């Protein structure tokens, strides 16, 4: 793990990547992450999912997460309940909540994901 350091980064500096269990063009940039800044208590990503892209249903034991939808629309499942999410929606996920998100819209679904702590499993 990289030592934490204070930095200013431009979003263009971080490459798009498809993290494990993300499919169909579910791309993210790990802007503040243990591997990019050495952050130990926060994971801050911007994600863009192409139509039909999704992350597999999963759960975090101790992590809290916030999803902030910037553009597009999709479906978010939380503990078996599925709702439409769209621009300006903010979702809080408590530890132990099974969840997934998929782009069911016509264009890209773009959102910020903030997670803390980074390592829990």
Automatic annotation (TrEMBL):
<dbReference type="InterPro" id="IPR051610">
    <property type="entry name" value="GPI/OXD"/>
</dbReference>
<dbReference type="InterPro" id="IPR011051">
    <property type="entry name" value="RmlC_Cupin_sf"/>
</dbReference>
<dbReference type="Pfam" id="PF07883">
    <property type="entry name" value="Cupin_2"/>
</dbReference>
<dbReference type="InterPro" id="IPR014710">
    <property type="entry name" value="RmlC-like_jellyroll"/>
</dbReference>
<protein>
    <submittedName>
        <fullName>Cupin domain-containing protein</fullName>
    </submittedName>
</protein>
<feature type="domain" description="Cupin type-2">
    <location>
        <begin position="47"/>
        <end position="114"/>
    </location>
</feature>
<keyword id="KW-0479">Metal-binding</keyword>
<dbReference type="InterPro" id="IPR013096">
    <property type="entry name" value="Cupin_2"/>
</dbReference>
<dbReference type="GO" id="GO:0046872">
    <property type="term" value="F:metal ion binding"/>
</dbReference>
């Amino acid at each position: 793990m990289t030592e934490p350091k204070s930095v200013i980064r431009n979003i263009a500096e971080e490459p798009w990547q498809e993290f494990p269990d993300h499919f169909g063009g579910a791309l993210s940039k790990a802007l503040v992450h243990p591997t990019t800044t050495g952050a130990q208590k926060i994971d801050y990503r911007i994600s863009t999912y192409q139509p039909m892209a999704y992350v597999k249903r999963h759960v975090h034991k101790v992590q809290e997460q916030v999803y902030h939808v910037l553009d597009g629309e999709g479906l978010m499942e939380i503990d078996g309940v599925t709702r439409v999410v769209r621009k300006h929606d903010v979702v809080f996920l408590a530890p132990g909540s099974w969840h997934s998100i998929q782009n069911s819209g016509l264009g890209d679904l773009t959102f910020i994901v903030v997670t803390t702590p980074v390592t829990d499993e």
